[in-house]
Amino acid sequence: GAAESSITPVALPRKFEQLPIFKALTTSIFETDDGIEEYFTLGQNYPNPAVSNTVIPISGVVSGMEAVLTVSTMDGRMVSSTRIMPGQQSLTIPTRDLPTGNYMLILRSGRLTRTRIMNVVK
C-alpha cells in the first residue's frame, strides 16, 4: 500500500518491473496450495458410540499447518483440545470419564473447519 516513490530506490538508473512473486501477499499455505481443502478431513470416530476410548481419523494436515482438534459438548463447552501434528492420521481419546451424550468433534486449521458428532455411552 506504499506509494511507488517511497519504495523505488534512487540509486538505480531506471524503474524495474516488479516480479510476480511480490505482487500477491500470501499469508498461509491455504492460499497458495490449490486443493488442500479436499484433503483436510475429519473422519467419523470409531467405535461410535464410544464407551472407554475412541479413534478419530484425520487427514490432510501438512507441514506448515497448525491444526487443533476440539471436543465440545453440544452446548459449546470445551471438553478437550489437542494439537494435531503434520502427517498425523488419527487421534485416540479416552471417553470413559465423559458423561453419556453427544459431543462435537471440531478440527480447525486456519480458515478450514471440519465437524463430526460423537456419541458416548456407559
Report on the architecture of this protein.
There is one protein chain. By secondary structure, the chain is mainly beta. Helix content is 10%, strand content 38%. The protein has helices at 4-7, 29-32, 36-39; strands at residues 41-42, 53-59, 67-73, 78-84, 90-94, 101-109, 112-120. The relative contact order is 0.21.
Q: What's the quick description here?
A:
With 122 residues, this protein is mostly beta strands. It is built from 3 helices and 7 strands; from the N terminus they run αααβββββββ. It has a 4-stranded antiparallel β-sheet with strand order 4-3-6-7, with no helix packed on it.
Total helices: the number is 3
> If strands are numbered along the chain, what order do they take across the biggest sheet?
4-3-6-7
Distance between the termini: 59 Å
> Please, what is the average pLDDT?
83
Fraction of residues in helices?
under 10%
Low-confidence stretches: 23-33
Radius of gyration from CA coordinates:
22 Å
In one word, what is the shape? elongated
* Class inferred from helices and paired strands: mainly beta
- H/E order of the elements? HHHEEEEEEE
Please count the beta strands (DSSP E, at least 2 residues each): 7
Question: How much strand content do the residues show?
Answer: 35-45%
Q: Sheet with the most strands? A: 4 strands, antiparallel
